[in-house]
């Protein structure tokens, strides 16, 4: 059974470019600083709860705590679609990875993130975040899916069962997923995403993504 791996698998292979922090600079007080979480809405049925490695779909707004100015709004990005990302693996700033643990679909949170768990002493010029900025995010979580780096996902892509993913296998898989979700994409999107996958995952440059390279989240054994 495919369960909920359809959207999860698609996102394995899409570039989850979502507020990924560059170098995270921290001060000496990082250990004493924590993310503050305020639950704004909790649905009656709170299941499943998010955990490391899960694929999440969420909208969120980011504000500077100093003056309340908004520096990010997911609803104005990507035609207003909620953001997909894998939790707990550094695809978002460390504070968001922490803030969105044990969260359930439909839940809303307001979280305050200290600089050491955000963009630190460097800040982030592209988003106009100054150095040593405390950030506030208002988050609405829509979906919690099994993460894309599961054993089942790897085996589904690895057609010849040689424990490594070739460019041809991933190319074919991308075509299947694109056909399945039915979204219109520019013809160049396939090649761009394929190149990006290998750039980010083929660490030894041998032209294949091994089980070890693929399974970076260390929660499954192949």
TrEMBL record:
InterPro entries: EF-hand-dom_pair, EF_Hand_1_Ca_BS, EF_hand_dom, PPIase_dom_sf, PPIase_FKBP, PPIase_FKBP_dom. Residues 1-25 form the signal peptide. It holds the Pfam family FKBP_C. Its EC number is 5.2.1.8. One of its GO terms (cellular component) is endoplasmic reticulum. Keywords: Calcium, Endoplasmic reticulum, Glycoprotein, Isomerase, Metal-binding, Repeat, Rotamase, Signal. Residues 145-180, 189-222 form the EF-hand domain. It comes from the Eukaryota. It catalyses: [protein]-peptidylproline (omega=180) = [protein]-peptidylproline (omega=0). GO terms for molecular function: calcium ion binding; peptidyl-prolyl cis-trans isomerase activity. It is an enzyme of class 5 (isomerase). Residues 53-145 form the PPIase FKBP-type domain. PANTHER family: PEPTIDYL-PROLYL CIS-TRANS ISOMERASE FKBP7, PEPTIDYL-PROLYL CIS-TRANS ISOMERASE FKBP7/14. This is peptidylprolyl isomerase. It comes from Pitta sordida (Hooded pitta).
């Amino acid at each position: 059974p495919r369960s909920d791996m359809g959207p999860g698998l698609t996102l394995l292979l899409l570039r989850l470019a979502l507020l990924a922090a560059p170098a995270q600079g921290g001060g000496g007080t990082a250990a004493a600083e924590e993310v503050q979480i305020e639950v704004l809405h909790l649905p009656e049925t709170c299941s499943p709860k998010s955990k490391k490695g899960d694929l999440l779909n969420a909208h969120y707004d980011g504000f500077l705590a100093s003056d309340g100015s908004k520096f990010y709004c997911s609803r104005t990005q990507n035609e207003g679609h909620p953001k997909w990302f894998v939790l707990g693996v550094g695809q978002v700033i460390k504070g968001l990875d922490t803030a969105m643990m044990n969260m359930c679909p439909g839940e809303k949170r307001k979280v305050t993130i200290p600089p050491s768990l955000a963009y630190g002493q460097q800040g982030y010029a592209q988003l106009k975040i100054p150095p040593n900025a405390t950030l506030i995010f208002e988050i609405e979580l829509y979906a919690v899916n099994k993460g894309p780096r599961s054993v089942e996902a790897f085996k589904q892509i690895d057609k010849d069962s040689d424990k490594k993913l070739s460019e041809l296998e991933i190319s074919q898989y991308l075509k299947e997923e694109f056909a399945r979700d039915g979204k219109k994409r520019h013809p160049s999107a396939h090649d761009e995403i394929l190149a990006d996958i290998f750039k980010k995952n083929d660490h030894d440059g041998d032209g294949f993504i091994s089980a070890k390279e693929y399974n970076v989240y260390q929660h499954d054994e192949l």
